[in-house]
Amino acid sequence: xxxxxxxxxxQPATDDDAMLVRVQREDFSIDEELKRVRRRSKRxxxxxxxxxxxRDRSKGKDVDGITFEHYEGMAQKKLRxxxxxxxxxxxxxxxxxxxxxxxxxIGDNIVLIIAAAEHRAEAFRACQWAIDELKQITPxxxxxxxxxxxxxxxxxx
Amino acid sequence: xxTIHLFGMTKMxxxxxxxxxxxxxxxxxxxxxxxxxxxxxxxxxELLQKKKVLVSxxxxxxxxxxxxxxxxxxxxxxxxxGGSEGC
Lengths: 157, 87
Hints:
The complex is a heterodimer. Chain A is of the alpha+beta class. Chain A has one domain (21-153): Molybdopterin biosynthesis MoaE subunit (Aldehyde Oxidoreductase, domain 3), CATH 3.90.1170. Chain A contains four helices and ten strands, in the order αβαββββαβββαββ. In chain A, the strands form three sheets. Chain A has a four-stranded mixed β-sheet, sandwiched between helices. In chain A, a hairpin with a 2-residue loop joins β3 and β4. Chain A is elongated, with a radius of gyration of 18 Å. Chain B has one domain (2-77): Ubiquitin-like (UB roll), CATH 3.10.20. The longest helix of chain B is centred in the middle third of the chain and has 11 residues, at 30-40. Chains A and B meet through β2, β5, α4 and β9 of A and α1 of B. Chain B: Belongs to the MoaD family. Chain B: Keywords: Nucleotide-binding. Chain B: This is Molybdopterin synthase sulfur carrier subunit. Chain B: One of its GO terms (biological process) is Mo-molybdopterin cofactor biosynthetic process.
């Protein structure tokens, strides 16, 4: 391999893989995250996105705010597994998985999944599978703040 | 000595402690750890017996027969609730 070729091949992607799987306190920009995914390949022809936001009601009770707690290290590991399996098993080109932690105000963003594929069918399937799987295997917990007090949410939706 | 990380309701049930330190002899398994926790924190013990709270060792859900070694990263994991409920 010539030096020129090696340099080209070794060029870092515009974003490294770490940016495609994140657990972070701060809010995210959907536009920026979409751009991040779109930059990964020119073969992308269909993108499905899921955005989870904080609702003001849960099981018939008012909710004033939510706090998410995560297991640092294991949460990221599980989200990486989800991204890798989604790409491998659903034939999509790229998947981004972000989850916020800390205090989240009603109406704010919580979780973002973006699945990009050549065609829409696999993008939809990968996106739905990824959010369902996230809820099953990712060590993230939710504390709801209600007028009656704080409640750790146990059940899977 | 092993350190056990607590989250969510398990942390609350342990008086808001983020970690527990327990002494375990060599050759002990996850089920022995569960017995020790049950004796000290019966409410957490009950959730562990019902499998509502799972034990992870080195960031993977552990079987009760898995041997626990000194320095292992152990955590008690209440039911997960990521995402936004009902979404």
